[in-house]
Every structure is written in structure tokens, then in C-alpha cells.
Amino acid sequence: MDRSATGTTPPLQQICEEIIADPANRDATAAGLQPIYTAHPAARIVVIGQAPGARAQRTGIPWNDPSGVTLRRWLGVSDDQFYDPTLFAILPMDFYYPGKAAHGDLPPRPDVAARWHPRLLAEMPDIQLTVLIGRHAQKHYLPEAAGTNLTDTVRAFRDHLPDRMPLVHPSPLNFRWQSRNPWFAEQALPALRTRVHTVLRTHVDPAGRETRG
After folding, report:
1. CA–CA separation, 29 vs 24, rounded Å?
2. Rounded CA separation 43/110 (Å)
3. Which of 198, 45, 190, 194 is nearest to 129 (CA)?
4. Strand partners, 167
5. Distances in Å between the alpha carbon of 114 and those of 35, 37, 121, 136?
6. Which residues are registered as beta bridge partners of 212?
7. 40 and 85 in contact (C-beta within 8 Å)?
8. What separation in angstroms does the CA of 19 have from each of 14, 85, 116, 144, 153?
9. Reduced to 3 states, what is the DSSP secondary structure of residue 41?
10. Number of H helices and number of E strands within the chain?
């Protein structure tokens, strides 16, 4: 167990331990499953999606599937960058695979993000961009867009930059949506990459001076 020089548990680790011990997660913990998310005090971008899929839960690696490959291409980053916790935090709306529904996976449990995200985000003060993937994340974090559908919310991405960026899910099943909405690849993705690259190349050294990496 990683503890600080004072012998106390670091805040993010303490929160993780509380998530694992939460009675609401009793079945997952009893099955030996870990919460699937990434958080680090130095993270600069947070990706908020729906919930880990079965493969992510099994491997312990978020976005470890074809959707993740597409997402990293959309962001314009390498695997090493995406999985560097000092660059990217990954906070799904639920930390555990919710199971199968008749069509696709079940939705995330509605109270998980409201309960845990504020505490996790409070320990990541350097977040400069929040990427909101899918309707569940957008309804929670963009209440002003609650009355619009996903397409309209994503189309209005400029209203939310530079701090937030709504995206459709990068699932291969969404190829029809992308073909019907060519503006997404032509306008939204270049804007996303520009903002991501701006955030990632800006560093602050211990003396507080901005440097470019």
C-alpha cells in the first residue's frame, strides 16, 4: 500500500479504498473485481464515458477495445500518452461493468458519478479539459444541454470549449451516425485535437514557469 511520508493514505488511494469497500459494490468486490478508472493529482485531461465494458473489467484496462483505439485516434494521442495518468484521468459514470442488456450493455448506475466524481476531481486541480462521451456523461455534466439530443449537443461543441468537449461514443457501431454527420470529422475532431495538443504541451515547472514540451 502506497503511503505518504507521514504514514497516512494519499487522498486518491483513500477514495479508491472507500469505493471498493462501498456496500453498493459488495458483489463486485466479493468477485475480486476492481473499480476501473484512472486518477492522478497531475492529470490535465479527464475522459468521462459511460461504464467499463466486459473486456475492460476483465483486463483492468479502460478503453481496451476497438472503441478505445478510435478514441485515441480522435484525441490525436498515442497509447502511451492516453494511459499516462499524469496526462489523462479516466472516470466513467460507473466504475464497474454493469452487465448485459437486451441490446448492448446496461446503463451505468445513476448515483455513482454524483457520489464519487466530485471527490476524485477535487484531487486533480490541473484538469484543463473534460471530454464527455455519450449521453449519460453529457446529461450529468452539461445540464444546460439536457433538453437537446446527443447530435445537437455534440454539434454545439464550440459552446463548451475550451473546458469541455462532448463526443459521440467511438463505438464501431456508430459509423452510420458519423456518415450522416460529416461535420463531426470535418469540424469537431480537429477542434478536439487542437485543444488536446494545446493542453498536453503546456507544462508548469516547480518554480511556476510555463514551459512547452
Report:
1. 10
2. 25
3. 45
4. 133
5. 16, 15, 11, 12
6. 202
7. yes
8. 9, 19, 8, 29, 31
9. coil
10. 11, 6
CA atoms within 13 Å, Cβ hemisphere of 165 = 25
- Among the CATH numbers 3.20.20.70, 3.40.470.10, 3.10.20.310, 3.30.365.10, which is that of 11-202? 3.40.470.10
Q: Determine the Cα–Cα distance for residues 184 and 53; give it in Å rounded to an integer.
A: 25
Distance CA 213, CA 211 (A): 7
pLDDT along the chain (213 residues), means of 10: 58 98 97 97 97 94 96 97 97 96 88 97 98 96 87 96 97 93 98 97 50 42
Q: Determine the Cα–Cα distance for residues 144 and 126; give it in Å rounded to an integer.
A: 24
